[in-house]
Structure formats: structure tokens, C-alpha cells
Design brief:
This protein has helices at about 1-20, 20-25, and strands spanning about 25-30, 30-35, 35-45, 55-60, 65-70, 75-90, 95-110, 115-125, 135, 140, 145-150, 170-175. By secondary structure, it is mainly beta. It has a single domain (about 25-175), classed as Sandwich (Immunoglobulin-like). The strands form three sheets. A five-stranded antiparallel sheet has the order 6-7-4-10-11, with no helix packed on it. A hairpin with a 2-residue loop joins strand 6 (about 75-90) and strand 7 (about 95-110). The longest helix has 18 residues, at about 1-20. The radius of gyration is 20 Å and the shape is globular. The protein starts with a helix and ends in a 14-residue tail after the last strand.
């Protein structure tokens, strides 16, 4: 009898723990970034579509997140879609006016009861004000079904109220200003 009572008391807590936001969506590993820096985006896919394995992950790179480069993933094929930006952005060796707008990993097979990470590097431009959130809409395609992690909250709406929220990172500041070299010879 005590075991049955314990099971009844724990069942709601267990159900909440398993179905809560941490288990219910794709997410970015690092939740904060700074403008003027490269952000290593790690999209975590934590489950399949029911019992169906994941066979494709597609990430949309938003305007202002520039110079995206996907990381190779053994067993998966990477396809990128390039296009023009709405404006030019400062980059490593000058201005850039076009770049990767979408990254797709396909051809692999991620079992529904396993998780994996899909990684890309992107520069967060100063078009994003401090305190803003940058969203990377993601579509997870399975052998049977799909998850469209593309929902972006309306102003004032909490992201955890959405059924399939887009992975997001908060801008917490700007990159530190470059310091002049110390202890060297003066420039001639």
C-alpha cells in the first residue's frame, strides 16, 4: 500500500519532469552572446518524432547573424543556401553583403531515443540591441513526421508558452574593445 501511495504522489512530478521545456524542444547550448563576436551555435536535438528517428535538421540564419559556417558532422551531408543580406556588415576582412541563410544536415539517422548536436559558427552583428533575443528557427524532419521549432514569441509573451519555440540566444552586451599592444616597440 505505501508503494502505491508513493507512486500516485510521484507520477505527476515525473510527468512534468519528462514533458517540461527542457525535454520538449530543440535548444541552443549557450544561452547568451555578445555583438561583434563569433557565436558557436550548438543546436541540440533531444528526441525524435514519437518513435520516429530524425533524418534532417534545417536551421534558418536570421538577418544580422552573418558569415555562418556549419561544422562537418560524420554521417550527415551539409547543404547551405546563400543569399544577399538586407545591408552590408563589417566582417573579418572587410564588409560582407551576402552569406549563408539556411543550413541543412541530412542523410544521417538519429534514433528517437538518442540526442545529438548540430553546430555552426556565426558572427552576431550590432544590429541586435543589448537585451534582445536572436532566434534560429529550426525544422527537425523525421522518417514519420516533423517538428517545426520555428515559433517566436510575440512582444511580452514568454517563450516557454509556445508549443515549438525556435532556439534562441540573448544578447548580453558588445564585444570588448580591442586593447592596444603592450610592451612592444612603437609603430614606425
Amino acid at each position: 500500500m505505501p508503494n502505491m501511495l508513493l507512486a500516485r504522489l510521484c507520477a505527476p512530478a515525473l510527468a512534468l519532469a519528462v514533458s517540461g521545456p527542457a525535454y520538449a524542444h530543440s535548444a541552443l547550448e549557450q544561452k547568451e552572446t555578445r555583438t561583434g563576436t563569433f557565436y558557436r551555435a550548438v543546436v541540440q536535438i533531444t528526441h525524435g518524432c514519437g518513435d520516429s528517428p530524425t533524418i534532417s535538421v534545417s536551421v534558418t540564419v536570421p538577418e544580422g547573424a552573418v558569415g555562418a559556417r556549419p561544422m562537418a558532422k560524420p554521417g550527415w551531408t551539409i547543404t547551405t543556401t546563400r543569399g544577399p543580406y538586407a545591408r552590408s556588415y563589417p566582417f573579418v576582412h572587410g564588409e560582407i553583403s551576402e552569406g549563408v541563410k539556411e543550413i541543412v544536415w541530412s542523410g544521417g539517422r538519429l534514433p528517437a531515443d538518442e540526442f545529438d548536436e548540430f553546430v555552426f559558427l556565426v558572427r552576431i552583428s550590432d544590429v541586435f540591441p543589448i537585451g534582445s533575443v536572436v532566434y534560429f528557427p529550426t525544422v527537425q524532419t523525421c522518417e514519420a513526421g516533423a517538428h517545426h521549432w520555428t515559433q517566436i514569441p510575440a512582444p511580452g509573451q514568454a517563450g516557454d508558452t509556445l508549443a515549438e519555440p525556435a532556439p534562441a540566444v540573448r544578447v548580453i552586451g558588445a564585444a570588448p574593445a580591442a586593447k592596444p599592444p603592450q610592451g612592444g616597440r612603437p609603430a614606425r
